Amino acid sequence: MRYDRCKKLFSKFEKLKNLKILICGVGGVGGYALDCLYRSGVKNITIVDFDTFDITNQNRQIGSEFIGEKKVHVLSNLYPGIIPVDMKLTPENIEKLNIKDYDIVIDAIDDLNAKIALIKKAHPKIISSMGAAKRVDPTKIKIDSIWKTQNDPFAKKVRDRLKKENFKKDFKVVFSTEKPVECNMGSFVGVTGAFGFALCSEVLKDFV
Q1: Given CA atoms 127, 130, 133, 136 in this order, what sign does their dihedral have?
Q2: Tens digit of pLDDT for each residue in 160-184?
Q3: pLDDT band at 157 (very low <50, low <70, confident <90, very high)
Q4: Which is nearest to 127 in space by CA: 152, 109, 113, 139?
Q5: Which end of the chain is more exposed for a tag (fewer CB within 10 A), N or C?
Q6: Residue ranges of the domains in the chain?
C-alpha cells in the first residue's frame, strides 16, 4: 500500500494525514517541503505563489521544466488534491489569509517585507526558512529559534526587522551555519532542497 512504510514509522499517522498545511512560496525550498509532506501522507495542503517557472529555476525547483507556466498550477497537477492559490505574497495580501484554517504555516518566502508580515500574522503556527542560497553543505543545516541563528545574514535582517517592530515572540527557523559563498544569486539544490525537507521533518516529528 502507498503509505504502508509511513504508517510503520508514524504511529499517529491518522492525525498526520489530516493536518492542514499552508505553504507560502513554492520555489527551491517550498517545493521540496510540499513534496516531502505529500509523499508522507499529508494531503490537505494549500500552496500560495504568484511566480512562473523560468529556465534559471531548473537547477533547483520541482516542476521547473514547465517554463513560463504558473508554479502553483504546475504543482497542483503534479500533486493532485492540493489547493493552489495564485497570489502575490505581499504584506497586504498576507493580511487576507485565513490563518485560522490551518494547523501549520510554512514560510518559504524570499521577500523580506512579506516574510515579516507572514511571521507576525501566522505566529505561533509558523516555521520559517532563512537563507538557503550561496551554500553547498547540507550537513550545516540547523533548526532552532530565530533568535539563535548563526552565519545567516538573511536571518539577521529578519531579527532586526522583528525587533524594530517590537515583535519578541519565539518561533522555529531552518537555517545554515555555513558561511555564505561570495557570489551573485548562486544556489544549489543539495541545500535548498534539504531546507525544504527540514521544514517537513520539523512539522512531522511529533507524529512518530
Answers
A1: negative
A2: 999 999 999 999 999 999 999 999 9
A3: very high
A4: 109
A5: N
A6: 4-207
